[in-house]
Amino acid sequence: MGVLSRYILGDTRNLAFYDWDVKKQGPGEFDPDIVEWDAHRPLDPTTSRQHARSGPALPRWRMLWRCRRGTARLFIMMVDGFPAAFEMIQDWSLMRRELGWLERPGPYLGPGWTDPDYRGRRLCPRLLLHMIYLLGQSGVTYMYATVEQQNRPSRKMVERMGFRPMGIACVKRRFCRAFISNEWLRDESPKLENAR
Asked: Reduced to 3 states, what is the DSSP secondary structure of residue 140?
């Protein structure tokens, strides 16, 4: 199935959900190599070309549109002046319809992308920690991230960072929208040792 057909007709995948509580897992860390895109200006040509490589056009345009509306923020990791990785913060208002059944509201970290030539250099963890820091500075203490269930390297990475596993949920994409099941396919949250 082609990219356009997949986003119009839809597909189904399982996502692993993780959460981060600033009070328990830490405040993140400011990174001077990360810049936030000013949504009132067009992406510069190099960043635009890199962003085009990050995925299919329809979801990319939708993410940029969200930034222009003020419901999402795009962060760019610069390596020697080159935009090597992207990550986003999306407002809870965008997620409420699909994730309102979760225990606590909070912004969603993602999606993210790293240039294949720059993978293995811990750019994604730096982006995530930077966004956690900025959210914490603005008073946000709780947030979510997801990783595709089959993406074991990324799952190991966020778990090493300290993200807490929550569970696996089924996501169905239809007509460029995501419909998330309102219960876990598998609950992966840590069980309390003293629970009875």
From this structure: coil
Residue-by-residue pLDDT tens, the chain, 196 positions? 555 555 556 678 888 999 999 999 999 999 999 999 988 888 899 999 898 888 777 678 888 898 999 999 999 999 999 999 999 999 988 777 777 778 788 999 998 999 999 999 999 999 999 999 999 999 999 999 999 999 999 999 999 999 999 999 888 766 555 667 666 777 777 654 433 3
Angle between helical axes of 45-53 and 57-69 (0-180°, round to 10): 130
CATH of the domain at 26: 3.40.630.30
What is the residue range of 55's domain? 3-187
Q: Which two tokens stand for residue 102?
A: 């979760």
Which residues make Cβ contacts (< 8 Å) with residue 61, sequence separation at least 6?
none
What predicted TM-score, i.e. pTM, was given to this entire model? 0.86
Q: How many CB atoms lie within 10 A of CB 72?
A: 20
How many domains does the structure of the chain reveal? 1
The answer to whether position 31 is within a domain reads yes
